[in-house]
Design goal:
Helix content: 10-25%
Largest sheet: 5 strands, antiparallel
CATH class of the largest domain: Alpha Beta
Number of domains: 2
CATH superfamily of the largest domain: Medium-chain alcohol dehydrogenases, catalytic domain
CATH topology of the largest domain: Quinone Oxidoreductase, Chain A, domain 1
Low-confidence stretches: none
Bound molecules: NADP nicotinamide-adenine-dinucleotide phosphate
Oligomer: single chain
Strand content: 25-35%
CATH architecture of the largest domain: Alpha-Beta Complex
Shape: globular
Structural class: alpha+beta
Length: about 200
């Protein structure tokens, strides 16, 4: 299969498209997908330039790409929620992700079926940012129907999911962003929009 392979830290020009072996289903709970789309989360380019070398190590060659949407081509024999042919998306739980390739393998529990109302590309751009918002608000913030939530950076990758999660789980939601993004944010129905360039 083809993959974008990194042999040294640096800019996007360091990614080399090469022919490598396909990943294999090793565990009974693994799923192998044909990658239909992946995305560039900030953590992908931060790893690419070497920002995470002290926490993740420098195990070259590296294949980046945490977020993916793909078609299942093989399942481990204990996989119950999915079957070959399903279109799924998720944040891959492999070192560095490894979705910048034609095929990828990750555990069943990091995937879900792609919702019908979003495109393959939208699904591939969502998992890490959306999960960050969900974990922050639901699991750490423990927000409830009577909670008032202020989302700083509401127009960003995490923030736009956070506004939607806050509206679903919480009570009042105020969103902070610059005015150029208000039109987009209004579609997420926050109770108040604050332009940080105009007020504290
Ligand atoms: N992306 C992920 O999956 C992810 C995962 C884990 C953690 N994080 C962390 O979450 C944070 C946000 O990441 P992100 O990817 O969502 O960033 P992002 O897409 O770059 O968004 C940042 C947002 O912050 C807003 N902003 C800039 N200056 C501001 C200010 N002075 N006051 C209020 N808002 C301001 C910007 O709004 P305007 O554009 O409207 O000016 C922008 O939309 C970062 O600390 C990142 O490390 C991100």
């Amino acid at each position: 299969m083809k993959a974008a392979v990194l042999y040294e830290y640096g800019g996007p020009e360091k990614l080399r498209i090469e022919e490598i072996d396909e990943p294999v289903v090793e565990k009974s709970t693994d799923i192998k997908i044909k990658v239909l789309a992946s995305s560039i989360n900030p953590v992908d380019w931060k790893i690419r330039i070497g920002n995470h070398k002290y926490t993740l190590g420098s195990h070259f060659p590296i294949i980046l790409g945490f977020d993916a949407c793909g078609e299942i081509v093989e399942t481990g024999n204990e996989v119950t929620r999915f079957k070959v042919g399903d279109i799924v998306y998720g944040r891959l739980n492999r070192k560095y992700g490894r979705a910048y390739a034609e095929f990828a393998v990750a555990s069943e529990n990091v995937f879900d079926h792609k919702p019908q109302n979003i495109s393959i590309e939208e699904a591939a751009a969502s998992p890490l940012a959306a999960l960050t918002a969900l974990q922050a608000l639901r699991d750490k913030g423990n927000i409830k129907k009577d909670s008032s939530v202020l989302i700083n950076g509401a127009s960003g990758g995490v923030g736009c999911f956070a506004v939607q999660v806050a509206k679903l789980l919480g009570g009042e939601c105020w969103a902070v962003a610059s005015k150029r993004h208000f039109e987009c944010l209004e579609k997420m129905n926050p109770d108040k929009l604050i332009d940080y360039t105009e007020s504290d």
